[in-house]
Design goal:
The protein is of the alpha/beta class. Helix content is about 60%, strand content about 15%. Strand 15 and strand 16 (about 720-725) form a beta hairpin. Bound molecules: adenosine-5'-triphosphate.
Length: about 725
């Protein structure tokens, strides 16, 4: 038979104060020796190196108890170490070495070290490696002294674990436990992730709503940019067009006004005083002519009278001077004298007075002389005078007629001049009103221009405001296309409506009050990414939880199937062994009906929240029917019967899934001779499938072993080991 277990080496472990090695050369190795020599320490050495954590099962309280405590002959040690060497050429252990050395060391401070082929590893690495080879675990494989009936004393649950262990389900159990642990961790992580998501959710929602607002504001800004671009382009074009039009209008009005003003001046010049002056001159002339006419009329009347008189005288031929001297002539002479005398009267100076008197005398003299000259000498003279007078009268009458005509002309001229004056006045009034009208037009043009200029200012302000609100891209308005005729055909109200819409949009943007919100957008992006990451993580976690649940379910199914199958085999073997040991009767392992219990959950206030039923792990019970005995059950078995039943159970368990080796520490202690013989037979049968190390005081068992080791303890308290022959063994054992 292939021997997996090559050797065990104990150094400083318990009573093995000196390094001791046991090399296994046959399927059944027996260890013999007197009480207290250290045999059980060897079995515990196996437990220790295979990873046992229970100090109690190594009959110790703490790690230090496992170290050689010292004796007068050999001082205590600081470490205890046990090594087992496996032949792994058949790859019993899942590790790529032909020989595997498993080693455990414990130090006085209780620290443990685990080594695989000299490299430090973790305990769980050792356990996993060994479990893969159906070694270790619940310990049915190492039956300590007095513990043979442990399987009978164990609780149904523990018993089931032992059976599962024996069936090699430990590996699945490990995997299941690990998956459950992972599932639990995953659950914790799911809860953590969910709670993280819950934590960031309100902030994320807040940020989302902010970003939506920002997005809306951005859209509004884009809309504003487009609207502004069109509005500004139209406004600019309109202002430019209106300005040019008004400029042209102003120019035209100015020139019109200039023309009118000069015409007014001209008209004023024409009308002015010249008309009235002309009229005055004409009137003066008229008066003068009227005077002359009057004089001429008087003269003509006088001449007519004189002519009459002269003609009368002529007729009477007695013409006196008085008759021919004209009265006006005398009057004028008298007036002249009177004037000179009047002047003389004012004079105080005698000399001047005298000269005035001389003047009077001289005048009188010249009058007389004149009269003398005038006096008609004859009728001829009178006739001459009549002719002269008639001629004078005719002349004067002609003059009178001419003066009358002249007067008529003058009056007509005055009327004409006056009429011309009126016309000029009317023209001027009309011109002045035209000037006022032109001035009015000009003033309204300049008001309109001022309005345009204020519109231009407003336009520039709007551009600045637009830049502040939207940025430099607002300059796009300069390139915006305005369809032909759009300005002329469109009502200005449409543009005003555009402006109102823009204002409303601006207010909306301002009300959103978020500016461009880069910070918020960045934060939202980060938080969203975090949330998405958590969502992905959650999905991954849930997926892995799901697959872990599947794995667990699959493992449970496998365990269950194998367990039931294994149990069937164990029961078959048990039947056989029990029958052999007891010569009849029956024993079997039975799966207990899972018990149900009511579970109560309480909330924070201690109120019972819900009740649910929980299925308990179904344990294993042992049913025993001894031959020829009516009573059943474990309780009624004698010590020996208990030992036999246990042995039957242990052996049948190891039959189904034979472990590489089994260590039986005085399991046969309670057997009588007949049963010892049967026990030895069974050992031989077992030895075909597993390597056995049996510690015994029993000769039959010793005889079944292929090799024997004797353990002795000298005066120094150190256990020693020696290979012995059967004959020797019996002696050594005592
Ligand atoms: P039995 O046949 O009676 O079962 P045994 O051969 O199995 O005896 P063990 O129980 O293996 O004997 O050995 C017990 C002996 O080991 C005791 O004498 C005890 O003093 C000794 N021993 C146990 N631990 C230590 C230790 N740490 N240092 C020294 N000796 C120890």
């Amino acid at each position: 038979m292939f021997l997996s277990l090559k050797s065990i080496e104990l150094s400083g472990f318990k009573s093995f104060g000196k390094k001791t090695e046991l090399v296994f050369g046959s399927a059944i190795a027996g260890i013999v020796g007197p009480n207290g020599s250290g045999k059980s320490n060897v079995a515990e050495g196996f437990r220790f190196v295979l990873g046992e954590q229970s100090m109690k099962s190594m009959r110790s309280k703490k790690g230090e108890d496992l170290i050689w405590g010292g004796s007068p002959g050999l001082p205590r040690m600081n470490r205890a170490g046990v090594k087992v060497i496996f032949d792994n050429s058949n790859r019993l252990l899942d590790i790529d070495f032909k020989e595997v050395v498993v080693e455990r060391v414990v130090h006085r401070d209780g620290q443990n070290e685990y080594l695989l082929n000299g490299s430090q590893v973790r305990l769980k690495d050792v356990i996993r490696l060994l479990a893969g080879a159906n070694i270790g675990g619940s310990g049915y494989q190492i039956i300590s002294q007095g513990e043979a009936d442990r399987i009978l004393n164990a609780s149904p649950r523990e018993r089931r674990e032992m059976v599962e262990d024996a069936l090699g389900l430990k590996l699945y159990q490990h995997k299941k436990a690990e998956s459950e642990r992972k599932l639990e961790e995953t659950g914790v992580n799911i809860d953590k992730t969910k709670s993280l998501r819950r934590e960031i959710a309100p902030h994320l929602n807040f940020l989302r709503s902010q970003v939506e607002k920002i997005e809306k504001a951005r859209e509004m800004k884009e809309e504003l940019a487009a609207r502004l671009s069109e509005y500004l382009a139209r406004e600019h074009a309109w202002i430019t067009q209106e300005d040019a039009r008004l400029q042209e209008e102003a120019r035209a009005e100015e020139s019109e006004l200039k023309q009118l003003t000069s015409r007014v001046q001209e008209a004023r010049g024409k009308k002015g005083d010249s008309a009235s002056e002309a009229i005055v001159a004409l009137q003066e002339k008229l008066i003068e002519r009227e005077q002359k006419l009057l004089e001429a009329r008087r003269e003509s009347e006088a001449l007519a009278r004189e002519l009459g008189r002269a003609e009368g005288a002529l007729q009477s031929t007695n013409v006196t001077v008085e008759q021919i001297v004209s009265v006006p002539h005398v009057r004028s002479f008298a007036r002249e004298l009177s004037d000179i005398i009047a002047d003389a009267e004012k004079e105080g100076d005698l000399h001047t007075l005298r000269s005035r008197l001389a003047q009077v005398r001289e005048r009188i003299k010249s009058f007389i002389e004149g009269l003398t000259g005038m006096a008609p000498e004859t009728n001829h003279e009178v006739e001459e005078q009549v002719k002269k007078l008639a001629a004078s009268l005719e002349r004067v009458q002609k003059e009178e007629a001419s003066l009358a005509g002249e007067l008529e002309t003058l009056r007509a001229k005055i009327a004409e001049t006056r009429e011309a004056g009126f016309t000029a006045e009317r023209d001027l009034v009309e011109l002045e009103s035209a000037v006022r009208e032109a001035q009015g037009k000009l003033s309204s043009v300049s008001t309109a221009r001022a309005h345009i200029s204020s519109l231009r200012q407003h336009f520039e302000e709007e551009v600045r405001e637009g830049i502040a609100l939207i940025g430099a891209e607002i300059h796009g308005w300069e390139k915006a296309h305005i369809p032909d005729g759009a300005l002329t055909e469109e009502d200005r109200k449409t543009q005003e409506k555009r402006r109102r819409d823009i204002e409303r949009l601006k207010i909306k943007i301002e009300e959103s009050g978020l500016g461009n919100g880069e910070q918020i957008v960045r934060e939202f992006k980060q938080t969203k990414e975090r949330d998405e990451f958590l969502t992905r993580e959650l999905a991954d976690l849930e997926k892995s939880a799901e697959s872990l649940r599947d794995i667990i379910a699959e493992l449970e199914r496998t365990i269950d199937e194998r367990f039931k199958e294994g149990l069937r085999h164990i029961n078959e073997a048990l039947k056989n062994f029990f029958n052999k040991l007891f010569g009849g009767g029956e024993a079997s392992l039975k799966i207990e009906e899972p018990r149900k219990r009511v579970k109560q959950d309480a909330d924070e206030e201690g109120e019972v929240m819900m009740e649910e039923e929980e299925e308990l792990y179904a344990g294993l019970s042992v049913s025993v029917h001894l031959p020829r005995k009516k009573v059943h059950g474990l309780e009624v078995l004698s010590g020996g019967e208990r030992a036999l039943t246990s042995i039957a159970l242990i052996f049948s368990m190891s039959q189904v899934n034979p472990p590489p080796f089994l260590i039986l520490d005085e399991t046969d202690a309670a057997l009588d001779e007949a049963n010892s013989k049967r026990y030895a037979d069974m050992i031989c049968e077992l030895g075909k499938k597993s390597q056995l190390i049996v510690i015994t005081h029993n000769r039959a068992t010793m005889a079944a072993a292929g090799e024997l080791y004797g353990v002795t303890m000298g005066q120094d308290g150190v256990s020693k080991l020696l290979s012995v022959k059967l004959e020797e063994a019996e002696r050594v054992a005592k």
